[in-house]
Amino acid sequence: MTKDWKKKIDDEEKVLKAEQKKRETESHEIVRREHGVKVQELGRKFKCHVCNRPAQRPGKQYVDVRMGIDTSTFEEDDWSIPADLWQCSKCDQWTCKYHIYKDICQKCAEKM
Ligand SMILES: [Zn+2]
Ligand SMILES: [Zn+2]
């Protein structure tokens, strides 16, 4: 009997750990899926106006969080702007790195 009750605790622990692991995997999966949806939305909103390449990376924003007397800066994704497209300084349209040079897009350059 002595061994048995300990085994029960071991088994219980195993079950709990397995459940925890499952929950963690599920929440990772949700985060991953949400990220995918956001990337799709970002790509729908922002495209290179020359080649239609959709944006794939969100911009970054820096958020200051005060902790006691210290302020820490955290980097957060900013889904209102893309990180892999740039605005042309002449036409203000979003442009990928292949179609922008010195802040001017290919279309504006061709009109110059
Ligand atoms: Zn392009
Ligand atoms: Zn332009």
Give the helix/strand layout.
Elements: H1 2-45, E1 58-67, E2 70-82, E3 86-87, E4 94-95, E5 100-101, E6 104-105, H2 106-111
Antiparallel strand pairs: 1-2, 3-4, 5-6
The structure holds zinc ion (ZN) (2 copies).
Report on the architecture of this protein.
The model has no long low-confidence stretch (mean pLDDT 95). The longest helix has 44 residues. By secondary structure, the protein is α+β, with helices and mostly antiparallel strands. Helix content is 45%, strand content 28%. It contains two helices and six strands. The protein has a two-stranded antiparallel ribbon. A two-stranded antiparallel ribbon has the order 3-4. The protein starts with a helix and ends with a helix. A hairpin with a 6-residue loop joins strand 3 and strand 4. It has one domain. 12% of the residues are buried. One zinc ion binds next to loops.
